[in-house]
């Protein structure tokens, strides 16, 4: 795989087509259900524009002006814990309504390191798509110095955010995990041990999943899916992206702690990242 600078992630035309095609394949399954949900929501909004009472029609003054630019709609919600003074959730409506935060948003950069045994490697993560409403995100992960033949390796990853859509137990069998392994990894995060998690009865954990955005920590799984820029390359000698990361994200500081798991790799490889300040910029991306 050709060496590539991590600062700009620019590729030639053929490489870009390969990457975009692979990304579209990963995200396609999300688009179908989203279109149905959006259509239903639009119909409901149209029906609620006016209220009828005893044959008379009354306009609702408090209704928002639906003709205003969707990008001007920003709603701030207050949480009931210590996040209330430091943290806010922004809703940005576009053709696909997306829920993001000040840290978890397209274009956010995180830098740090991954430790495996006595070796430490520089790591950079760039988020490309974030939709907390669907408990989904994706981006690029770049690691330096993993092999001599490939001093820099970049992969595309997709993330499952623990909440209403994904539990702490890994259900994708191709990831080769199980409940015992999941609990061993989650249990290494001090914040997770403070949760009222019931390992015997998953139904008792619904309150954790439903209120995940109101907590200081958000938990995720990140799965690398293919190499960048050549998505056709399946493996590299001396490196593997067959496993996945257990991730703990601090909403107050923007810091990330992770543990890499693969049954044929060193156990509990630690990932530590911090957010790179961006001055509040909110770049947008669209795959075509």
Task: Summarize the structure in short.
Residues 36-65 are annotated as: Disordered. With 288 residues, the chain is of the alpha+beta class.
Q: Could you describe the 3D structure shown?
A:
- With 288 residues, the chain is an alpha+beta fold.
- It has 4 helices and 12 strands.
- It has helices spanning 13-47, 179-186, 190-193, 206-210; strands at 50-53, 56-59, 89-92, 98-101, 109-116, 119-131, 136-144, 152-161, 217-228, 244-250, 256-261, 269-275.
- The strands form 3 sheets. Strands 5-6-7-8-9-10-11-12 form an 8-stranded antiparallel barrel. The chain has a two-stranded antiparallel sheet with strand order 1-2.
- It is globular and about 50 Å long.
- Residues 56-65 have a biased composition (Basic and acidic residues).
- Residues 36-65 are annotated as: Disordered.
- One of its GO terms (cellular component) is vacuole.
């Amino acid at each position: 795989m050709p060496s590539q600078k991590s600062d700009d992630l620019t590729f030639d035309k053929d490489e870009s087509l390969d990457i975009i095609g692979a990304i579209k394949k990963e995200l396609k399954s999300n688009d179908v259900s989203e279109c149905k949900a959006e259509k239903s929501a639009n119909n409901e909004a149209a029906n609620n524009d006016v209220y009828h009472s005893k044959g008379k029609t009354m306009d609702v003054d408090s209704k928002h002006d639906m003709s205003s630019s969707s990008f001007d709609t920003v709603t701030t919600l207050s949480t009931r814990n210590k996040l209330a003074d430091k943290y806010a959730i922004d809703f940005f409506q576009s053709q696909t309504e997306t829920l993001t935060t000040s840290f978890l948003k397209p274009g956010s950069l995180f830098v740090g390191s991954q430790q495996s045994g006595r070796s430490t490697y520089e790591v950079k993560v760039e988020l490309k798509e974030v939709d907390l409403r669907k408990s989904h995100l994706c981006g690029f992960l770049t690691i330096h110095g993993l092999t001599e033949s490939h001093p820099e390796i970049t992969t595309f990853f997709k993330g499952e955010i623990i909440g209403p859509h994904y539990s702490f137990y890994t259900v994708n069998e191709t990831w080769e995990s199980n409940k015992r392994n999941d609990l061993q990894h989650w249990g290494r995060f001090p914040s997770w041990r403070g949760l009222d998690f019931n390992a015997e009865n998953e139904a008792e954990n619904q309150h954790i999943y439903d209120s995940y955005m109101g907590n200081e920590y958000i938990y995720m799984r990140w799965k690398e899916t293919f190499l960048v820029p050549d998505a056709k390359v399946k493996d590299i000698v001396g490196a593997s992206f067959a496993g996945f990361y257990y991730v703990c994200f601090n909403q107050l500081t923007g810091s990330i702690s992770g543990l890499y798991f693969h049954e044929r790799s060193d156990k509990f490889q630690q990932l530590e990242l911090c957010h790179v300040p961006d001055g509040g910029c909110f770049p947008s991306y669209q795959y075509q």
